[in-house]
Specification:
By secondary structure, the protein is of the alpha/beta class. It is built from 8 helices and 7 strands, in the order ββαβαβαααααβββα. The strands form 2 sheets. The chain has a 5-stranded mixed sheet.
Length: 221
């Protein structure tokens, strides 16, 4: 099985950030909680080049790396938020900032392009379990085993992973991160213009605080 590698000269290095949204014991939030006031430059940043995709302008866009432990740990928090707000949409962007990121991005986008987005959770689980159990990232053999487990044809999957569509999606994610100086993952963009990055102020201490911030930005013009 063959995967493309997208190597681009980048002006910034996006990293799996050690500072991520807090994850407390209780993954719950009350949408009726009184509104708080959040400020630009402290709680969020306004993108210099807002996302133009209609779906991005209506909900959340996440920039992530499958191999990032902090992205893996952020996943339950994000899923909890969306589960309580089914009207909120989510777009995922997997950049290709180097050879390993490109390999993982090609796997992610091949799933999406093949109509198998429902397996994203299982793919995250594969990456997390491989890291925890073996202290490494999945290799081609592990990805092939994953495909066989889910009755996916490896040849067709490889074609999608190496397709121009997959490459274009990676380049889009790279370009958006570079244009807006998004320097770490996981990062969330709300309504295509408000960035909630990996460095959060001291008054964001719980899941509820984080959820309120996202709610506030979703209601903001």
């Amino acid at each position: 099985m063959k995967f493309l590698y997208l190597l681009l000269p980048l002006a910034l290095l996006a990293a799996c950030s050690p500072q991520t949204p807090p994850v407390s014991e209780a993954l719950s939030a009350d949408a009726a909680t009184p509104a708080r006031i959040f400020t630009s430059g402290k709680h969020y940043q306004v993108l210099s080049k807002p996302l133009t995709e209609p779906a991005a302008q209506q909900g959340l866009t996440e920039y992530f790396w499958l191999g990032c432990p902090h992205c893996q740990n952020f996943e339950p928090l994000l899923k909890a938020y969306l589960a309580e707000r089914p009207q909120v949409s989510l777009l995922r962007r997997h950049p290709a900032l180097g050879e390993r990121w490109a390999f993982d991005a090609s796997v992610f986008y091949a799933l999406q392009l093949g109509g198998n987005a429902a397996l994203t959770d299982a793919l995250f689980t594969l990456y997390r379990d491989t890291r925890v159990e073996k202290n490494q990232l999945p290799d081609v053999a592990a990805i092939n085993a994953f495909l066989a487990q889910h009755q996916l044809d490896s040849g067709a999957f490889s074609e999608l992973a190496n397709s121009e569509q997959a490459r274009a999606l990676m380049e889009q994610a790279n370009r958006e991160m570079l244009d807006n100086r998004i320097q770490g993952v996981p990062a969330i963009v709300v309504k295509g213009k408000y960035l909630v990055g990996t460095e959060l102020p001291d008054d964001i201490q719980s899941n509820e605080d984080y959820f309120q911030l996202l709610d506030y930005l979703l209601q903001k013009d």
